[in-house]
Design goal:
six-stranded antiparallel β-sheet, Alpha-Beta Plaits, 26% strand, 2 domains
């Protein structure tokens, strides 16, 4: 059986920080990994108490765990293993994100005599998570308007259909097209056309409720997905979008451009596919255009 000195040397080989506390939360052991991750040498820490708040452990809600909600206290009083993500204050002053695992320590009679904490620096993992989030955002975001793109909008329609089938939740879908957009590009140029699309996107977003989805479907066409609607409320929303756009001219250098939109609105049904419901709304939108534009067709 390895002796205590050998076990201590073994723990010093770990990259993770490891320390033990007794039932009074007095620190009895502090390994080399803990020294490297915190900046504090063992002689500075051993004999102090973790509730002295030397490391200022803070969780994701901003709570100071050394004063309230200490995982080591839970391990000692409840006898359970726990895992947390938090940050500590390094001796130099900066904060270090950690993954912390704690467990009770028992004697030969099974009595809890303290607890052990093992903590790992997750700075690189957090950076990778942020980068993954940025890449996901780029994959689902339209560069010009910053709206959700066609791929993301399609996924949301699929999710909405699942909720219609499973829970009977009522969703509505609108396809919206900016009228005479080719004329804007031809007369004022593509830079102005891009600005018109950005403004149209903003106006549509401002008209719907925050949980609703406004996505750029392609070109000058937008998809709007709204939850918890009736045929009447969906038609009212479509007309509100139409009026909001037509009442607010787009100001560009040297011109004030009045926009109108044509829209097709429909409810999602349990038997629909995402492709079918989008096609239905699209056909209704083209009916609006063929009947003079600046109007809404519902079906």
């Amino acid at each position: 059986m390895p002796d205590a000195e050998f076990r201590a040397r073994l723990l010093d080989c770990l990259y993770d920080g490891v320390y033990f506390v007794d039932r009074d939360r007095k620190i009895a052991y502090w390994n080399r990994g803990a020294e490297e991750l915190t900046g504090y040498k063992a002689e500075e820490v051993v004999g102090t108490h973790c509730h002295d708040d030397l490391l200022m452990h803070i969780d994701g809600t901003g709570r100071h765990l050394c004063k309230s909600g200490c995982p080591l206290v839970d391990a000692i009083t409840r006898g359970c293993r726990l895992e947390h993500e938090l940050t500590l204050r390094h001796k130099s002053g900066h904060r270090v994100p950690l993954r912390v695992r704690v467990a009770p320590i028992r004697n030969e009679q099974g009595e809890i005599i303290g607890a052990v904490e093992v903590f790992s620096d997750v700075t690189h993992l957090k950076a990778m998570e942020r980068r993954a989030g940025e890449m996901e955002n780029l994959a689902f975001r339209d560069v010009l308007t910053s709206l959700p793109n066609r791929r993301f909008s399609s996924l949301k329609v699929e999710q909405a259909l699942d909720e219609v089938r499973q829970f009977g939740r009522q969703y509505g879908l609108m396809m919206v097209d900016v009228d005479h957009f080719k004329q804007v590009n031809d007369q004022w140029g593509h830079l102005t056309g891009d600005e018109v699309l950005r403004v149209a996107a903003l106006m549509l977003t401002e008209t719907v409720r925050p949980p609703d989805i406004v996505g750029r479907w392609g070109g000058e066409e937008f998809l709007i997905l709204v939850a918890d609607v009736t045929p009447e409320s969906l038609l009212n929303l479509a007309n509100r979008c139409r009026k909001f756009v037509s009442d607010r001219p787009v100001l560009v250098p040297g011109a004030s451009i009045r926009l109108t939109i044509s829209a097709g609105a429909t409810l999602l049904h349990a038997g629909d596919t995402a492709e079918a419901v989008v096609q239905r709304a699209d056909l209704l939108m083209y009916q609006s255009k063929s009947r003079g534009r600046d109007q809404v067709q519902f079906g």
